[in-house]
Design goal:
By secondary structure, the chain is an alpha+beta fold. It has four helices and four strands; from the N terminus they run ααβαβαββ. The protein has a four-stranded antiparallel beta sheet with strand order 1-2-4-3. α2 crosses α4. The N and C termini lie far apart (31 Å). It binds zinc ion (ZN). Zinc ion binds next to β2.
């Protein structure tokens, strides 16, 4: 069974409990790595400058403590293999729905490849294929 590295676990521990529960379940079935949890001002400024985030500090979902967002990639990471990111995300969102239905997490999860959560990816404007967040508007 795949397991998180200490680095991934440490990053995941900076995230909302629902995200921790979700990805501790996902890792049992699909090897993945936590790229980023909480982001302080310097990290958010860098992400904004690099075009990896559209929000300035402290408005990003990664900026709260605990972080309401987490960036996760399938392992090993291949930034050019976009299909694998979507495949992984579908897997994660399916598990998230099941955990929510079972009352093990309390929020829906929103994905950066489908911001409006309509399960249609061709209408998505800003692609953030590693980003999963607590959907505070869809409790
Ligand atoms: Zn993110």
């Amino acid at each position: 069974m795949p397991k998180f590295s200490q680095t991934s676990l440490s990053k995941l521990s900076t995230c909302h409990i629902d995200l921790q529960i979700l990805f501790k379940e996902v890792i049992k079935y699909f090897d993945c790595q936590i790229l980023e949890g909480h982001r302080g001002q310097a990290a958010q400024d860098a992400a904004y400058a690099a075009g990896n985030s559209q929000l300035k500090y402290p408005n990003g979902k990664h900026n709260s403590i605990l972080s309401n967002a987490v960036d996760v990639s399938p392992y090993p990471i291949d930034w050019n293999n976009h299909k694998r990111f979507y495949w992984f995300a579908g897997y994660c969102l399916g598990i998230a729905q099941k955990l929510k239905d079972e009352g093990k997490i309390t929020h829906k999860i929103r994905y950066g490849g489908d911001w409006d959560s309509d399960k249609e990816i061709t209408d998505n404007k800003f692609q953030d294929l590693v980003h999963f967040e607590i959907n505070v508007t869809r409790i």
